[in-house]
Amino acid sequence: MTDNQSAAVSFPDVAVLGAGTMGAGIAQVCAQAGAKVVLQDIRDDLVDKGLGRIRDFLQKGVDKGKVSAEQRDATLARVSVATDRAVACREADLVIEAVPEILELKNGLFRELAGVVTEDCVLASNTSSLSLAKVFDGVAAPERCIGMHFFNPVPLMKLLELVRTAQTSAATIERVTAFSRQLGKEPILVVDSPGFASSRLGVCLGLEAIRMVEAGVASAEDIDKAMVLGYGHPMGPLKLTDLVGLDVRLAIADYLRKELDHPGFEAPALMRRMVAEGKLGKKSGQGFYAW
Ligand code: NAD
User: Fold this and answer.
1) Residue 61: inside a domain, yes or no?
2) Which of 96, 180, 188, 235 is 20 to 30 A from 276, comparing alpha carbons?
3) Is there a domain that residue 287 lies in?
4) What pLDDT, on the 0 to 100 scale, is given for residue 37?
5) What is the tally of structural domains in the chain?
6) pLDDT of residue 3
7) Which domain holds residue 247?
8) Is the pLDDT assigned to residue 239 strictly greater than 70?
9) Is 158 helix (H, G, I), strand (E, B) or coil?
10) How far is the CA of 199 from the centre of ligand 1 (A)?
């Protein structure tokens, strides 16, 4: 990775807001592709933690022989940190937001940012479920606003779901699509609609699998095997629900049930009961599987 490479990326200066699970991963892949990145969070200890995640991830890559020591150092040299949002964003030509999934927080942040960044700076949100029209409501120059939905863990997952609003311009989509490929991702383009493509289909499959457990159609293990061995899915829908968290998926199901007005998204009673009993999946030690 050289300075020439840095000049070649579609967005040479990127600001990432929120240095948590997703923000750190997003900052890492942008820096690996050659962009200069400022990783911002609200406190010093949080930006340090985010930077620590990137360092650890790259070091694991070096230990496994997948990343060279030079690549690790060059990537880290391109990442700086900040707690001041304006400082982080004023030079940026792309801002990617990865703060918690709270509409008012994201919308307030983008409204404020529009007065800080340059006119042609692209504004992107990593929301996994919120309406982009609401996230960008009232933001100046909405044609440069877009959803960039990354998947966890960001450095390993190939999919990047780009979400366009009614206002997103063709030029913004084209530039962000090119950048997605420079990050080594495979972009798909989705219209701003509840659950986009990934969550809508993924949650639908998970809910139906839970209904099948509830009705005694087969065991959780056998339902998962049906999808893994019969359909080539890398993981069955119930194990995936355990990994994501039953509480997280329940919140998405309730949201989609309301927004799409579709009975298929009605959360099964078994799911509500398990969440109430604290059986949240991997993070609590018990879900459809014992972890
Ligand atoms: P996280 O809790 O790990 O990180 C969020 C970070 O944002 C925290 O470090 C927090 O301190 C910081 N933050 C809070 N307010 C802020 C502000 N005003 N300015 C800057 N930073 C602020 O959360 P996450 O899992 O990284 O999720 C972030 C976003 O990505 C959410 O919208 C989530 O829905 C989405 N997402 C998450 C996943 C996932 O698997 N975790 C996958 C895809 C998308």
Assistant:
1) yes
2) 235
3) no
4) 98
5) 2
6) 43
7) 198-282
8) yes
9) coil
10) 17
